[in-house]
Amino acid sequence: MSPIDPSNPIDPGSPIGRVGTAEHAAGWERALQVDAASTGDTASAGDTATAGETLVQVRHTLTSRLRDAYPVGARDLEIGVTRGTPEGVALVVAHLFAEDPACRRIILAVPEQDRVLADLAEGADLRPVVEVELTDDTVVELWVAEPARVTARSTAVDDLPQT
Q1: In angstroms, rounded to a whole number, what is the distance separating the alpha carbons of residues 141 and 71?
Q2: What range defines the domain where residue 130 resides?
Q3: Domain containing 109 — which CATH number?
Q4: Nearest alpha-carbon partner for 90 in 3, 140, 19, 149
Q5: In the chain, how many domains are there?
Q6: Are strands 77-84 and 45-46 parallel, antiparallel or unpaired?
Q7: Which of 97, 129, 133, 160 is 20 to 30 A from 150 in CA distance terms?
Q8: Is 162 part of any domain?
Q9: What angle do CA 143, 132, 118 make, to 5 degrees?
């Protein structure tokens, strides 16, 4: 894990202070890593790794395979969990929202029937929104994290601005 710049004025207890960068996989823009000491975790899911280590791939949804799957926002991000724990994923999500306050949605595409990844998403406080078929005929369930400023808005038709 790349160390965080100690001259960075961000509080070390914040999500940004506990997430580092890692080498990203092909097709992804970057990767973020959280070690077990940052979350207090002792168990991991996915690929073999140090107990509790979380590795999450990140890319903008507008340039990803999800761009045609739902009404994509300009600052939406897609994440892919290479390995990790719910706590580590939640920390990465908090880091991404802190890093870009204009981001409205972070999406994790969970392949059909992947209960391990769905359970991890649920444990990280993501919520299932919709099942979609991608252009390659893959069926995925989109799990979403949204900041409170987005979820607090009313979606009732009567509350929408009239045109």
Answers
A1: 15
A2: 15-148
A3: 3.40.630.30
A4: 19
A5: 1
A6: antiparallel
A7: 133
A8: no
A9: 30
Calpha distance 160→163 (Å, rounded): 9
Query: In the chain, where does DSSP find H-type helix?
Result: 36-39, 86-99, 115-123, 148-151
Report yes or no: 23 and 31 within 8 Å, Cβ to Cβ.
yes
pLDDT in tens, the chain (163 residues): 333 333 333 344 555 557 888 888 999 999 999 876 655 544 434 444 445 589 999 999 999 999 999 889 999 999 999 999 999 999 999 999 999 999 999 999 999 999 999 999 999 999 999 999 999 999 999 999 999 777 666 656 676 667 6
Do residues 64 and 53 touch, judged by C-beta distance below 8 A?
Answer: no
Q: Classify residue 71: in a domain, yes or no.
A: yes
Query: What single DSSP character describes residue 112?
Result: T
Q: Any residues with CB less than 8 A from the CB of 40 and at least 6 apart, and which?
A: 52, 87
Report DSSP state, residue 80: E
Say if 157 falls within a structural domain: no
Cα separation, 107 vs 121, whole angstroms: 10
